Amino acid sequence: MIRLTWAKGLQFTAEDDHDHKIVVDTEKEFGGLDQGFRPMDLLLVSLAGCMGMDIAGILKKKGGKIDSFVIDVEGIKAEDHPHKFTKITVTMKCEGDYKREDLLRSFELSRDKYCSVTATLGDKPELEFVI
């Protein structure tokens, strides 16, 4: 479970079941303090983190060695509310000692089978709200 606790303005602290914490905030012009991640940016972090862990783990199992691995994720938002992402571009730069086909297969397995974030984004989940 993730718990969000209001701090001040539009700033919250998010905490998981393992006592990890991050600050969720927004721009000052919208009432935030500009001291933390925006909620939509955290969605992009989740996507990159999920795929990155999958790919790094699969490459390691295939005997590859990663020297550097950077994932850039950019989301284009709709002009109108709710400003949802209409397109997300994931760019990966991986360097190391591995076979190119192993990297490509690792990416495909993450995208199509293992990454729960990609699967969730591709198949809208049922949402339940309790107030």
How does this structure look, described?
The radius of gyration is 17 Å and the shape is elongated. The strands form two sheets. A three-stranded antiparallel beta sheet has the order 1-2-3, with no helix packed on it. The protein has a two-stranded antiparallel ribbon with strand order 4-5. It is built from three helices and five strands, in the order E-E-E-H-E-E-H-H. By secondary structure, it is α+β, with helices and mostly antiparallel strands. The model has no long low-confidence stretch (mean pLDDT 97). A hairpin with a 5-residue loop joins strand 2 (11-15) and strand 3 (21-24). 13% of the residues are buried. It folds into two domains: 1-37; 38-131, GMP Synthetase, Chain A, domain 3 (2-Layer Sandwich). Helix 1 (39-61) packs across helix 2 (100-114).
